[in-house]
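Standup notes
- HV: blocked on the assembly model, inputs below
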Amino acid sequence: MPEDRQQKPLMRQETENYIIRTITDDLVTDTMVAWYASEEIMRYMNDPMNLSAGQLKNIYGKYDGRNNHALLIIDKKTGDHVGIYRINITPYHQQANSSILIGNKDYWGKNVVLEVRQHFINQLFKSGKINKIVGTVRGRNFPAHFNYTKQGFKKEGVRRQQYRNRNGAFEDVVEFGLLKEDWRKTQQTDKEGSRS
Amino acid sequence: MTRTPVDQAKAIAAEVFEVSAAEIKDDDTIETLSNWDSLNHMRMLMLLEDRFKTTIDTEVAMEMFSILAIANWIETQKSS
């Protein structure tokens, strides 16, 4: 194997209720294929739909496990596959772009996004290598607006009619950002709150 | 008796959250109401669009995280 093709580092993390693991070929199952075939689940995603297991393995195999991570969210108790969390890091700008897909509809409205993303927000900022985390959300993706706002992200702008959705209609896109200095303030507030 | 926009906002929130309107306060927000989660947030905005036969603008939707903000939006619908 050429030296530049080192083995991809695999990530495994835990939150209170979920295991988050690098997507390896064995984790690309019919469940994930079904997510990509569902218009309802993929409504706000930019990914192409109706991908085969082979195509998904090829896409997720390209994440390098260093600056690009594609992770599967798994319910600790049931082992159910819940969704996909992706992080792309731009080291020079000390910036991380994250996106999340909750493919298992049983977990919609169950705060999976808040729990998983908060884990990575804390990790990324504590690493000392990230100054800003950003997210891009479709204008009609009201659940995502809620989650980003709840986690302290600021709306940095709305790109009007930025994309066409799968029905051909133009949709706005909202840019969210969370700075390390803002995150620090929330940590401080949490500490003060826990003392009272 | 005509209901105020705040009362209407509380009634819509109560309908979505499946609680009594009396349990919702004028100054409630996404931080204070445990039933106000991401899914219920979407349900509430879609119910507002349905009731008022309109589409909520993205910029406006980004402000609707409190009962008072929803009441303000209802007020604009009445005057438009």
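- HV (later): unblocked. Chain A has one domain: 12-195. Chain A touches chain B through 19 residues (CB under 8 Å).
- Next: hand off to the docking folks.
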